[in-house]
């Protein structure tokens, strides 16, 4: 239980309120779709830069195309999910954020590891990653359980 003692009274955190998880699974799906669109749009200017770099380097720069999308995605996650808001643009649009159960803020590395575990888990264990969220408290997915994080609503 996330509880703090303030002036002799026990103060519970918003993460203990079950209303903070109402509709979170659906909101996570739509946030993921929005974030994929944002990463896709952010990839376009970087692709243009790599194309020009490839011409300048007589084709050597074009090898960067192989890491373009993952690099853009990692930078996006690091700068949004690892920020003070603890939410990507899609998560902000859907009114959710990523929190640690111990109450400390999410840093950039934790945000990237969270996303990499999400992607790897979906490649390897797709049904398990999604099924775990149906049976866990706070609607946590497999990578949330591994990292001690939870996605909650910002409006509750």
Structure description:
With 156 residues, this protein is mainly alpha-helical. It has one domain (25-153). Helix content is 55%, strand content 12%. The protein contains five helices and four strands. It has helices at residues 24-56, 68-80, 89-94, 108-135, 142-147; strands at 3-6, 9-12, 96-100, 149-153. The strands form two sheets. It has a two-stranded antiparallel sheet. Residues 1-11 have low confidence and may be disordered. InterPro entries: Pra-immunoreactive (IPR051791), RDD (IPR010432). It is a multi-pass membrane protein.
Number of beta strands: 4
Q: Number of helix segments?
A: 5
Number of domains as seen in the coordinates? 1
Mean pLDDT: 88
Radius of gyration: 18 Å
Low-confidence stretches: 1-11
Helix share bin: 55-70%
From the spread of the alpha carbons, the general shape counts as: elongated
Strand line-up in the sheet with most strands = 1-2
Major beta sheet summary:
2 strands, antiparallel
H and E order: EEHHHEHHE
What is the strand content?
5-15%
Ends: how far apart? 18 Å
* Class by alpha and beta content: mainly alpha
